[in-house]
Amino acid sequence: xxxxxxxxxxxxxxxxxxxxxxxxxxxxxxxxxxxxxxxxxxxxxxxxxxxxxxxxxxxxxxxxxxxxxxxxxxxxxxxxxxxxxxxxxxxxxxxxxxxxxxxxxxxxxxxxxxxxxxxxxxxxxxxxxxxxxxxxxxxxxxxxxxxxxxxxxxxxxxxxxxxxxxxxxxxxxxxxxxxxxxxxxxxxxxxxxxxxxxxxxxxxxxxxxxxxxxxxxxxxxxxxxxxxxxxxxxxxxxxxxxxxxxxxxx
Length: 250
Description:
The protein is 16% helix and 39% strand. By secondary structure, it is an alpha+beta fold. The protein has 2 domains: 44-50 and 139-249, Beta Barrel (L,D-transpeptidase catalytic domain-like); 68-138, Roll (SH3 type barrels), CATH 2.30.30.40. The protein starts with a helix and ends with a strand. Mean pLDDT is 79; it is low at 4-60.
C-alpha cells in the first residue's frame, strides 16, 4: 500500500515540475506564433502616405555620379514593350489604395532614342516610350547584407549610414537580387511599425522593408522574407529615400 502511495506522489510531482517548467519557458521565450508571424505587407490594413517622394526632377541629360534614374508614368496606365518598337506591347495600370491611385514607377536600366528600358515590379524588364514617362533621379541606394544582418544606406555611391536588420528565416529567406522601392505604406498594424516600403521582388505576396514592435528580433533570421528595422530607422528612411530607389539584396 505504501509503495502505491509513493508511486502516485512521485507521478504528481513529475507533472507539477513539467507544468512549472513550461510556464517559465512561456514567460521567457516568444511564442511560436510570434516568431513565425506573417511578415508580408498588410495591404488591406494599410494606406499610403499622401507624400510623393519622387520630387527630384531631371532637368538635363546628365545624371550625377552614383545616382540612379527613376521613371514615373505620366498617366494611370502605360504601354510596355518587349523589345521596343518591334516588340509585343501590353498595358499595365496603377494600383489603387482606397480612393487613391499609386503612380507607376520603375527603375531605369537603359535608354535609347525615344525609348527607355525599365525594370518593373516583379523583376521583369520592358521598354516604354520616353514621352510616356517623367525621369527623376536619386543619389540613394539600399544594400542588404543578409549574413551580417546589416543594411547600408549609400549616397552617391558612398556609405552614409549602417543599420541593423532582421531577415527571412528557414523556408522563407529574404530573396537575393536587384529590386527597387515601389510603394510607401503607412501601417495600421504595430507589428509592421509605423511605415513599410514595398519592394519589386517577385514573391507570392509583396515583400518589404518595415518597422517592428518586436525590437528583440533585429539581428536575427526570423521573418517570412521581409526586412525588419527598428521603428526609428524606418521613420528616418521615409524622410530621406524616394520611391524608385534601388535595393540590392546580397
